[in-house]
Amino acid sequence: MPPASGVAGIQIWAKPLDDAHTAALFINGGGANYTASITLKELNVTIIAGTSVKVTDVWSGEDAGPVSNGMWNTGNVMPMDSRFVIFERISAEDVAHEMRMPTGWMDEDSAYV
C-alpha cells in the first residue's frame, strides 16, 4: 500500500502466533498523520464460517476497533508512532459467552476473565 504524498516509512508487519491469533504492527515513520484500512487477507488472517475477528490493542488492552467486510482501520497514527494489535479469531459461542460474563467474574473453566 503506497503512503500518501509526503509520507514515508509506512510499514505493516504481521506474525501468526497460533491458529487463532495474529500480531500486527503498523508503523508510521513519516512526518504526517496516517490512517490505513488493512484487509485480513493482507495479514493472512482467515475467517472460518461461524467465527469473527476481535482486535485488541497490545499496549492498552482495549478493543482496537471492528473488522468490517474483512477490513480493519488503524485509526489515526501520529508521525513517528505505531499501532500494535492482536487479531483473534473467535467463535460465535465465545462472543455470546463474553457478553454473558462481566469482566472480573469467574467462570467454571478459568480464573478471572
Describe the fold and architecture:
With 113 residues, this protein is mainly beta. The chain has one helix at 92-100, and strands at residues 10-16, 21-28, 37-39, 51-57, 67-68, 71-73, 81-91, 106-107, 110-112. A four-stranded antiparallel sheet has the order 1-2-7-4. It is elongated and about 45 Å long. The model has no long low-confidence stretch (mean pLDDT 83).
Write the layout of secondary structure elements.
Elements: E1 10-16, E2 21-28, E3 37-39, E4 51-57, E5 67-68, E6 71-73, E7 81-91, H1 92-100, E8 106-107, E9 110-112
Antiparallel strand pairs: 1-2, 2-7, 3-6, 4-7, 5-6, 8-9
- Summarize the biggest pleated sheet: 4 strands, antiparallel
> Per DSSP, what share of the residues sits in E-state strands of 2 or more residues?
35-45%
Please give the alpha-carbon distance between the first and last residues: 37 Å
The strand order across the widest sheet is 1-2-7-4
Total DSSP E strands:
9
> What is the radius of gyration computed over CA atoms, rounded to a whole number of angstroms?
16 Å
Report the total helices.
1
State the shape: elongated
In CATH, the topology is named: Immunoglobulin-like
Average pLDDT works out at 83
